[in-house]
C-alpha cells in the first residue's frame, strides 16, 4: 500500500538487466546457432542430425531415471531417520551429509576409480578371499553408482528439511484419529514431504541427465551420454558449435518438459530450495 | 527399530565417506600408485607447493570466488528488496522465473549458452580471444545470483514492513533506514547467500569449463589432471580442498548455532 | 499562540489505490494538545489518514498542513510527528535502550544527553532497569511501553498511535488506556489515536472522528457522538441502537412504529422522513396496559449488570437493556421518554442498521477480530 515502493522496485533493475544479458540473450543466441550453419545461413540440418544421437538421449534419460529412483529410495529413509535423532545430532548429521556436496564432484567421482578399478580396492579384497575379480569399472552400473553417489546429498537435504518442519501435533493428531505407524507415514508424513521429494528428484535428475564427467571416468568410452556428445562437439571447434547448440537446445527442452511434469505433482513448492 | 535406523544412517554415511577416506589415505601413499598403499609419505603435498600451474589456478579460483560472491551479494540483495517491492504479481513472478533459470537448467546448457554469448560479443569487437577472466567472472555471478536472492528473500519477508516506516518516523532517511534497520535484520540471510555463492564458485567445474578460455580455475586443472594418468598428487590437492571446505562449514555452523543460542537465551530470559 | 490553534489540518484529501477510493474529499482540523481519535470499521480509511499525517503516504489530491504550513511532499523523517505502530515495529536487533535512543542518535545528540533522556523515558513508562533487555524477551505490555518511550523521546509535536493497544489482553488494555491518557496530559502533546474499539475511543478522547467509506461521518466529543449521532452509521457503530423509520410530523412530535411520540428535536420539515434512534438502555419495560408500544420477548441474555432483551414489535426487533428479568414469549409494553428519542436526517446508511432480527453477539465479536490489515 505504499507508493514509495516504486523507488524500491528500481533496486531490482541491475539484476533484471544482468539476467536479461546473461540468461535470456544467451539462450536466444543458442537458439540462433541451433538453426544456422557455420556461415550463418538458416538450416534445419543441425536439428535433423539430432536423430543420430537418439541413443545417447535414450541412455541419458534411462540412466538418470534409474539413478534418481535409487537415490530417492536410499535418501528417503535416511532423511526420515535423521528427523528421529535428537536436535543437536540432527544438526551434526546435516552437516556431515552436506560436506561431500561441497567437495568437488570431479574428485568424488574420481576416487571411485580407486575403489572399482580392476586392480582396485574391492577386487584386491575379493582376490584375497580367492574370488575372481569382478568387472566393475567401465560398466553402466558404475556410471549409475557415480550419479547416485555424487547427487545423493541433493536428495537427502530437501526431504529432510521438509520433514523436519512437519508439525509434531499433526502426527499426534493422526494417532489420535486412529492411525497406526504405517498409516501415519502413508497419510501424513509422505504427502507432507512431497515438496521435498519433488525438489530432490529435480536436483538429482537434472545434473544426472546432463553429466559428461561421470560417464567418461566411470563408464570408460563405451557409454556416450548427451553431455558427452555436447562436450565432444564443443572440443571439436567452432564449426561444430551449431550442432552442439541444437543438442543443448533439445536437452534443455527435455529437462523443461520433465520439470513441468514434476511440477504437476507438487502443489506450491515454488521456493523449495536446498538448505 | 532404533538400532536399525542408526545402522541405516551409518551405512549411508559410510557410502558417502568411503571414497573421501580412500582419497585421503592414498594422498599419503609413498608410491605413485592409487591402488596399492606402500607406505606413508607427504611428498605429494610437498610437490604441490612447486606446482605453478596448480598455484596459479588456485589464485584464479580464489579471485573469481571472492569477486563473484561479493558482486552477486550486492546485486542479489538489492534485487531481493526490489523484487519484493514489485506490486504487479505477473511482473515479479516473471523476474523470479528468469532468476531461477540458471538454477534449474543443466549446467552444461548454461555453460554453452554463456560461451556462445561471449564468443558472439568477442566477434562483435573483433577479439580473437573472447574467453578469459571477465567471462568466467560474469558466468559465476550469473549462477550465484539466484542463490543469494533466495537466501535473502525469506529474511526480508520475515522483516516487519513497519520497521522502515518506524526508522523514517524517527528521523532516518530511506537510505539510512535501510542500513540501520533492514540490513541488520537480514544479515544472516545475506551471509548465507555470500557463503553459498563463494562455495558454489569454488566448486564449479562445468560452467567454468565452457567459459574460462585460458584463465584456468582449480577444478579445470583437476579435470586436466584426471585426464592423464592418475597419481596421488590429485588426491593430495583434493584432501587440502576437502579440509578447507570442512573448516569453512564448521565455522559457518558455529556462527549459526551461536546466534540461535543467543536467541534461545533471550527467549528463556523473557519468562 | 492561542490554545485552540490547529496543529494539523487536512484539506480536501483524496487517496486512491489501484482505482479504489480510500479517502474521499476529507477535511479535518486537529487542535494543538488534544487527544483525538479516528474510529471506524476495517477499511474506513483511518489508518490511511494517519499515514498521511506521518508522511508515509502522499494524498492524490488535497493538502496536509502542519502549524499552518503545507507539508505535502515533506518526507516522514523531516516531520515533527512520531508514530506508534500497530505491532510496535521495535527493532529486533537492538535492545531496549538502543531502541529508545534510535531517533536521538539520528539527531546526533551527545551520549550523556541521550543517556539522561532514555532514563527519563524509561521512568515515564515504568521500565527502569530493563535497558539491556532484548526486545523479544519483553511481554506485549512492555513492548508497548518501549514503543511509546521510543516515539516520545523525540519530542514530537504530534504523536500518532495506530491501534497500539489491539494486541494486548483486556485487562492490560484498560491499564494502558489510562496510562496513555496520563502521559498525554503530562507531556501536553497532541495525540492522534486510531482504533476500531468504540469503548476505547469514548474513554480516552477529547474528540472522536467517526469514519466510514473514506469519509468522516461525524466529529465531536464522545458525549456528542453518543447522544447526538448524525446518521444511522454513527448511531449503530457507537454503542447499541434501535434505529427505526419515522416521520417528523412537526417540531417536537414524531411518528414511528405506528405510534406518535413527543420528542426534543426540531428543525425538520413537516412530515419529513427521518431515522429515529432509541438507545436500548433508555427504554423501560412496563406492563402491557401502560406501554406506548407492545410486543413479545423473543430472546433474553444475562450479561451481569443487566439483561439484554429482544422484543418483537410488529416485526421490528428492539433491543432493550434492563435490570429486571423477563422471559421469552412474555407480552410486554415499552415506555419511551421524550429525551430518549433522537432524530436523524435520512442518509445513505438508512435502513442498513438498527434492527436486531439477525442479532448475534458472535458475529459482532468476530467483526471486531477481523480488523484492519
Descriptive overview:
The complex is a heterotrimer of chains A (275), B (271) and C (373). Chain A has one domain: MetI-like fold. In chain A, 73% of the residues lie in helices and 0% in strands. Chain A is built from 14 helices and no strands. The longest helix of chain A is centred in the N-terminal third of the chain and has 29 residues. Chain A is globular. Chain B has a single domain, classed as MetI-like (MetI-like fold). Helices cover 81% and strands 0% of the residues of chain B. Chain B is built from 11 helices and no strands. The radius of gyration of chain B is 23 Å and the shape is globular. Chain C is α+β, with helices and mostly antiparallel strands and 373 residues long. Chain C has 9 helices and 20 strands. In chain C, helix 5 links the parallel strand 7 and strand 8. In chain C, helix 2 packs across helix 3 and helix 3 crosses helix 4. The two termini of chain C are 39 Å apart. Chains in contact: A-B, A-C, B-C. Chains A and B meet through helix 1, helix 2, helix 4, helix 5 and helix 6 of A and helix 1, helix 3, helix 4, helix 5 and helix 6 of B.
Quick summary of this structure?
Chain A has helices at residues 5-9, 13-34, 45-49, 54-82, 87-102, 105-116, 121-128, 140-164, 168-176, 181-192, 194-209, 213-218, 226-236, 241-265.
CATH fold-level label of the largest domain in chain C: Rossmann fold
What would CATH call the homologous superfamily of the largest domain in chain C?
Answer: P-loop containing nucleotide triphosphate hydrolases
Alpha-carbon distance between the two ends of chain C = 39 Å
Radius of gyration of chain C (Å):
24 Å
Low-confidence stretches of chain C: 360-373
Proportion in β-strands of chain B = under 5%
**What is the CA-based Rg of chain B, rounded?**
23 Å
How many E strands of chain B? 0
Strand content of chain C: 25-35%
- Please write the CATH class name of the largest domain in chain C: Alpha Beta
Task: Count the domains of chain B.
Answer: 1
Amino acid at each position: 500500500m505504499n507508493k514509495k515502493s516504486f523507488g524500491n522496485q528500481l533496486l531490482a533493475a541491475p539484476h533484471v538487466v544482468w539476467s536479461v544479458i546473461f540468461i535470456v540473450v544467451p539462450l536466444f543466441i543458442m537458439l540462433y546457432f541451433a538453426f544456422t550453419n557455420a556461415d550463418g545461413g538458416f538450416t534445419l540440418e543441425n536439428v535433423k542430425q539430432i536423430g543420430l544421437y537418439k541413443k545417447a538421449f535414450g541412455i541419458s534419460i534411462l540412466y538418470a531415471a534409474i539413478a534418481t529412483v535409487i537415490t530417492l529410495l536410499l535418501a528417503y529413509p535416511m532423511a526420515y531417520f535423521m528427523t528421529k535423532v535428537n536436535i543437536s545430532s540432527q544438526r551434526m548429521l546435516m552437516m556431515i551429509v552436506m560436506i561431500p556436496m561441497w567437495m568437488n564432484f570431479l574428485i568424488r567421482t574420481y576416487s571411485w576409480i580407486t575403489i572399482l578399478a580392476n586392480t582396485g580396492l574391492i577386487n584386491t579384497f575379493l582376490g584375497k578371499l580367492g574370488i575372481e575379480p569382478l568387472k566393475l569399472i567401465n560398466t553402466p552400473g558404475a556410471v549409475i553408482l557415480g550419479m547416485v553417489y555424487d547427487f545423493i546429498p541433493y536428495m537427502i537435504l530437501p526431504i529432510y528439511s521438509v520433514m523436519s518442519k512437519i508439525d509434531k501435533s499433526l502426527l499426534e493428531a493422526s494417532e489420535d484419529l486412529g492411525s497406526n505407524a504405517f498409516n501415519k507415514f502413508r497419510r501424513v508424513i509422505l504427502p507432507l514431504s512431497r515438496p521435498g521429494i519433488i525438489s530432490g528428484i529435480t536436483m538429482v535428475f537434472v545434473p544426472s541427465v546432463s553429466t559428461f564427467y561421470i560417464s567418461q571416468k566411470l563408464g570408460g568410452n563405451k557409454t556416450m551420454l548427451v553431455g558427452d556428445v555436447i562436450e565432444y562437439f564443443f572440443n571439436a571447434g567452432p564449426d561444430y558449435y551449431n550442432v552442439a547448440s541444437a543438442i543443448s537446445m533439445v536437452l534443455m527442452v527435455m529437462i523443461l518438459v520433465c520439470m513441468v511434469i514434476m511440477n504437476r505433482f507438487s502443489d506450491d513448492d515454488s521456493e523449495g530450495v536446498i538448505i | 527399530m532404533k538400532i536399525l535406523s542408526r545402522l541405516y544412517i551409518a551405512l549411508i554415511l559410510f557410502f558417502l565417506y568411503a571414497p573421501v577416506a580412500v582419497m585421503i589415505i592414498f594422498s599419503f601413499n609413498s608410491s605413485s600408485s592409487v591402488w596399492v598403499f606402500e607406505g606413508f609419505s607427504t611428498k605429494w603435498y610437498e610437490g604441490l607447493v612447486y606446482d605453478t600451474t596448480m598455484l596459479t589456478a588456485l589464485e584464479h579460483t580464489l579471485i573469481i570466488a571472492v569477486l563473484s560472491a561479493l558482486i552477486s551479494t550486492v546485486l542479489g540483495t538489492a534485487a531481493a528488496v526490489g523484487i519484493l517491492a514489485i506490486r504487479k504479481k505477473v511482473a515479479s513472478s516473471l523476474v523470479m522465473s528468469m532468476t531461477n533459470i540458471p538454477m534449474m537448467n543443466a549446467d552444461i546448457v548454461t555453460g554453452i549458452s554463456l560461451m556462445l554469448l561471449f564468443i558472439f560479443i568477442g566477434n562483435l569487437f573483433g577479439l580473437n580471444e573472447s574467453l578469459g577472466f571477465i567471462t568466467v567472472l560474469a558466468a559465476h555471478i550469473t549462477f550465484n545470483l539466484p542463490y543469494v536472492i533466495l537466501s535473502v528473500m525469506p529474511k526480508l519477508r520475515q522483516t516487519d514492513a513497519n520497521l522502515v516506516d518506524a526508522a523514517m518516523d524517527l528521523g532516518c532517511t530511506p537510505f539510512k533506514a535501510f542500513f540501520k534497520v533492514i540490513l541488520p535484520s537480514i544479515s544472516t540471510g545475506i551471509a548465507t547467500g555470500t557463503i553459498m555463492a563463494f562455495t558454489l564458485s569454488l566448486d564449479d567445474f562445468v560452467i567454468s569449463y565452457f567459459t574460462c578460455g585460458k584463465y584456468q580455475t582449480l577444478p579445470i586443472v583437476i579435470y586436466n589432471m584426471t585426464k592423464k594418468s592418475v597419481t596421488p598428487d590429485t588426491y593430495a590437492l583434493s584432501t587440502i580442498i576437502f579440509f578447507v571446505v570442512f573448516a569453512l562449514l564448521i565455522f559457518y555452523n558455529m556462527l549459526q548455532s551461536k546466534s540461535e543460542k543467543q536467541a534461545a537465551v533471550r527467549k528463556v530470559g523473557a519468562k | 499562540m492561542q490554545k485552540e490553534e490547529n496543529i494539523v489540518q487536512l484539506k480536501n484529501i483524496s487517496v486512491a489505490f489501484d482505482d479504489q477510493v480510500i479517502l474521499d474529499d476529507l477535511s479535518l482540523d486537529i487542535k494543538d494538545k488534544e487527544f483525538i481519535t479516528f474510529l471506524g470499521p476495517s477499511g474506513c480509511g483511518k489508518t490511511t489518514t494517519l499515514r498521511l499525517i506521518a508522511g508515509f503516504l502522499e494524498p492524490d489530491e488535497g493538502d496536509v498542513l502542519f502549524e499552518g504550513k503545507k507539508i505535502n511532499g515533506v518526507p516522514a523523517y523531516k516531520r515533527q510527528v512520531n508514530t506508534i505502530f500497530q505491532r510496535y515495529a521495535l527493532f529486533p536487533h537492538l535492545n531496549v535502550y538502543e531502541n529508545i535512543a534510535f531517533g536521538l542518535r539520528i539527531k546526533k545528540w551527545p551520549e550523556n544527553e541521550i543517556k539522561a533522556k532514555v532514563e527519563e523515558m524509561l521512568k515515564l513508562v515504568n521500565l527502569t532497569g530493563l535497558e539491556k533487555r532484548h526486545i523479544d524477551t519483553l511481554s506485549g505490555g512492555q513492548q508497548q511501553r518501549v514503543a511509546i518511550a521510543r516515539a516520545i523521546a523525540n519530542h514530537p509535536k504530534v504523536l500518532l498511535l495506530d491501534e497500539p493497544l489491539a494486541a494486548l489482553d483486556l485487562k492490560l488494555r484498560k491499564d494502558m488506556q489510562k496510562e496513555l491518557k496520563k502521559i498525554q496530559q503530562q507531556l501536553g502533546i497532541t495525540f492522534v489515536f486510531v482504533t476500531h474499539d468504540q469503548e476505547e475511543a469514548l474513554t480516552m478522547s477529547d474528540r472522536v472522528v467517526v469514519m466510514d467509506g473514506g469519509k468522516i461521518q461525524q466529529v465531536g466529543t464522545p458525549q456528542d457522538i453518543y447522544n447526538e449521532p448524525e446518521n444511522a452509521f454513527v448511531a449503530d457503530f457507537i454503542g447499541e441502537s434501535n434505529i427505526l423509520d419515522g416521520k417528523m410530523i412537526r417540531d417536537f412530535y414524531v411518528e414511528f412504529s405506528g405510534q406518535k411520540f413527543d420528542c426534543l428535536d426540531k428543525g425538520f420539515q413537516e412530515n419529513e422522513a427521518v431515522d429515529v434512534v432509541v438507545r436500548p438502555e433508555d427504554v423501560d419495560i412496563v406492563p402491557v396496559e401502560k406501554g406506548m408500544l407492545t410486543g413479545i420477548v423473543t430472546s433474553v441474555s444475562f450479561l451481569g449488570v443487566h439483561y439484554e432483551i429482544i422484543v418483537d414489535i410488529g416485526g421490528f426487533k428492539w433491543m432493550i437493556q434492563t435490570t429486571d428479568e423477563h422471559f421469552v414469549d412474555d407480552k410486554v409494553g415499552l415506555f419511551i421518554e421524550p429525551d430518549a428519542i433522537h432524530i436523524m436526517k435520512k442518509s445513505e446508511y438508512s435502513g442498513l442498521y438498527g434492527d436486531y432480527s439477525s442479532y448475534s453477539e458472535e458475529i459482532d465479536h468476530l467483526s471486531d477480530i477481523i480488523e484492519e490489515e
